[in-house]
Design a protein that fits this description.
This protein is an all-beta fold. The chain has a domain of 37 residues. The chain contains no helices and five strands. The strands form two sheets. Strands 1-4-5 form a three-stranded antiparallel sheet, with no helix packed on it. Strand 4 and strand 5 form a beta hairpin.
């Protein structure tokens, strides 16, 4: 297994490593489920227990966000999942 790099270490204590990347809720859909909006922020949780809030999606540097990028041939037709 590779050693964690400085990029994956906790910027607060330098000990923990990335445990989870999630996004806080920006709004709710009509059925009450959370959805991402331009105000949604990336929240990175480290194994040491620290959490670090990132910039909002609207103003964040796309090079700094941990987002999944897909090409059009990797997407699924919505009707196929229903």
């Amino acid at each position: 297994m590779d050693q964690p790099t400085e990029e994956t270490r906790c910027p607060i204590c330098g000990v923990g490593v990335v445990a989870d990347v999630m996004y806080d809720e920006g709004a709710e859909r009509g059925d009450g489920a959370p959805m991402q909006t331009a105000d949604t922020r990336q929240v990175t949780t480290y194994s040491c227990g620290h959490t670090v809030d990132g910039s909002s999606l609207a103003t964040a540097d796309t090079d700094e966000l941990d987002v999944e990028q897909r090409t059009s041939d990797e997407t699924v037709d919505p009707s196929a999942t229903e």
